[in-house]
Description:
The chain is of the alpha/beta class. It has helices at 2-40, 59-67, 115-131, 171-188, 208-216, 230-233, 240-247, 284-306, 312-315, 320-365, 369-392, 399-402, 406-413, 438-454, 463-470, 481-525, 534-557, and strands spanning 48-52, 84-90, 98-102, 110-113, 141-147, 153-157, 193-199, 223-227, 264-265. It is built from 17 helices and nine strands. A nine-stranded mixed β-sheet has the order 4-3-5-2-6-1-7-8-9, sandwiched between helices. Keywords: Coiled coil.
Amino acid sequence: MAGEESSQESAAGSKKMDELEGQWRLYEAYNELHGLAQEFDTPFDAPAVLVVGHQTDGKSALVEALMGFQFNHVGGGTKTRRPITLHMKYNPECDSPLCHLLSDSDPSVSHEKSLQEVQVYIEAENTRLEKETCQFSAKEIIIRIEYKYCPNLTIIDTPGLVAPAPSRKNRALQAQARAVESLVRAKMQHREFIILCLEDCNDWSNATTRRVVMQIDPELSRTVVVATKLDTKIPQFARASDVEVFLSPPASTLDGFMLGDSPFFTSVPSGRVGFGPESVFRSNDEFKQAISSREVEDLVALEEKLGRALSKHERSRIGVSSLRLFLEELLLKRYMDSVPSIIPLLEKEYRSSTRKLSELDQQLSSLNEAKLKEKGRTFHDLFLTKLSLLLKGTVIAPPDKFGETLQDERVNGGAFIGSDGLQFPHKLIPNAGMRLYGGAQYHRAMAEFRFVVGGIKCPPITREEIVNACGVEDIHDGTNYSRTACVIAVAKARDTFEPFLHQLGCRLLHILKRLLPIAVYLLQKEGEYLSGHDVFLRRVADAFNNFAESTEKSCREK
Length: 558
């Protein structure tokens, strides 16, 4: 009998370990998906717990309590300028936290770091962002943690919300508050995230954090509400009825259908882990034991205030351990529910990546000098053919995409401005309202130039200018009147027409440069575009633009 019981216990233990191993593998897979989704903007929905709260709500302290050890980035003020994603994994063999910091540039690369090194990195990021115009970044700092007290959870700790006073002296803080709220709102938009909404209040009619959360999740259907600092709230209640309302608020007070049906209530003992004179706990084990003791004390204090024993449901909502268990089970369920939808997405991404790799292999195999030169010559000839076609006239390129009205052309390429500082009314120019490109746009610009120049009156010529232009020559006995007329005509023409010639050069240069994207569109439409040769195409674009600019400069100098 003893042998059978022993074998049954062994089999049960083995089955339990297999279940845990399966959960760990699933959890690791989702951790990788979360990192890939952040880095490459992939459509994978990787469930995670998003912690949202104000700076005074005890947000970082609760995150520490959930992890089972103290994480030294907590403190007053704005200590987090980037969201911090904590991929926590329960590992009974880790007596001290094992941390891996994922690379910002490549999420598949991680570096083992001590808690102090992680703290230094976070502080350096905060300092860097504090000096930038936008003092916050939505890109997450991703840390993987294994520890004997860690739950199997992915928690995203967001910067604490700020509620500054409305006076002018607080403008900087008000701008910071708007930036933080914008970042947090953007994170809450991810529908796969479970929102952990923290409130530091003893009256549920005060919705400080819920005000922000309910703008994104109005029904609280994916929100877990947590009342923090319970140990400080209990002494504030004078009557048992006040405690009853606080523990089980009426539906009219808490709108929507929140996850878990009712709020959770947590307390985290104050004090830091360390060996200094200000440290309260000598180790994380002592810190974890203090959290458990605080839960027991809160339960006893609540029952004394109520004058009755707490129900099973009420007990399941008190303490960090209850919240942790609820989040673990909820996240595991979300993981399992997401598997059927994620597998087809992964297969689609796999097929897409395989196809792209195949195309790259094909392009690499054709990378020899002779073939590349031949491709370049062919593209050169085709490109010039399309340019010629655009100048002669075509209807292949859609005008609504590539055409410009005269008003658009003036804004983008410059307008003809007279000495009086006024523009010629564009409605008097033929085809002014039509969206043109290529040769047609050239023709309209030249027509406008002739129209403007033709309307200029001859400048007045004074007698003094005529006499000074006559001068004297050794060839003629007296004045060369033909030369005098030419000198006056050239000088007055330069003063009158030269500004318009400069303006015409800028206008025609704009029209010529616009031909480049239109020619590329025609090549793409006919399947003659060089895909996969971006560097070469950028060189072609640079050469074309340089040619256009040098030609315009040469004409202007002449």
